[in-house]
Specification:
31% helix; 2 domains; 33% strand; Arc Repressor Mutant, subunit A; 6-stranded antiparallel β-sheet; two-stranded antiparallel ribbon; alpha+beta; 8 helices
């Protein structure tokens, strides 16, 4: 219980109690916390102490407040290291979530000037477009919109269909392991924060304007472009990190 007379403030002790319950799985992700009144009575502390504890827990990412509804245990974020390329399934399952992938679209389209330039094809050449939604516990967390040149597009589509039939979670980067004709060597990526537009919001089951991290990627085999991809990650579900070297 909460002990008075210690150096640790009462609100921090209460926050630690909540953290312990979350770590022990007594309080699970998306569970609603007891009301302020219930916490006040159970731990024998003031309403101010309860509010300070919840504010600290929210600051540490343990809980999230929904105005007019209550306070809920936060869902752990998927951590993605930037200097390595991780398998989609393993990345999600490290959090104890069941990964899955849905194919939203598989289509052959006529390339425009921008896609032709990116993929080093001729304008109006056939381009393959694949759109995927990756989920954790059937909850959408990322939307991929990829474009392939005719060189590998057909093979990519066939392998994606095989993954679907086997119910194997995947992103487009997982496809290359099964394409014998190419071996990706590197990616060039840009990162930007944005609000969800209507299309992305629909795919990820979120409101328009919801915070996202958009990662634009070019996949290469040496100097040959293989894929142009736009990835939209939910800002409340993903956390990216990197180790960077300081230059004196």
């Amino acid at each position: 219980m909460i002990k008075r007379g210690l150096k640790t403030p009462l609100y921090e002790q209460l926050k630690d109690k909540l953290k312990e319950q979350i770590q022990n799985n007594e309080l699970k992700p998306n569970d609603q916390l007891p009301s302020e009144k219930e916490l006040e009575a159970h731990y024998g502390v003031s309403r101010i102490t309860v509010r300070q504890a919840i504010a600290l827990a929210e600051k540490e990412g343990l809980v999230s407040k929904i105005h007019g509804v209550g306070t809920f245990v936060a869902t752990p974020k998927v951590e993605q290291e930037l200097d390595t390329i991780n398998n989609f399934q393993n990345t999600v399952e490290r959090l104890g979530l069941v990964a899955s992938t849905e194919i939203i679209k598989r289509d052959r389209i006529s390339g425009d000037f921008q896609l032709a330039k990116l993929l080093n094809t001729n304008v109006m050449d056939i381009i393959f477009n694949m759109q995927l939604v990756g989920s954790g516990d059937n909850y959408p967390i990322v939307y991929y919109n990829s474009f392939f040149s005719d060189k590998i597009g057909k093979a990519a589509m066939e392998i994606a269909e095989e993954f679907k039939m086997k119910q194997t979670p995947f992103s487009t980067l997982d496809i290359y392991h099964d394409i014998d004709s190419v071996t990706p060597t590197h990616l060039e990526q840009t990162f930007e924060a944005m609000g969800a537009n209507a299309e992305v919001a629909d795919h990820l089951n979120i409101d328009q304007g919801f915070p996202l991290l958009k990662i634009t990627s070019m996949v290469y085999e040496n100097q040959t472009p293989l894929e142009y991809r736009e990835s939209y990650y939910r800002g409340d579900k993903y956390k990216f990190f990197a180790t960077r070297t300081l230059i004196n």
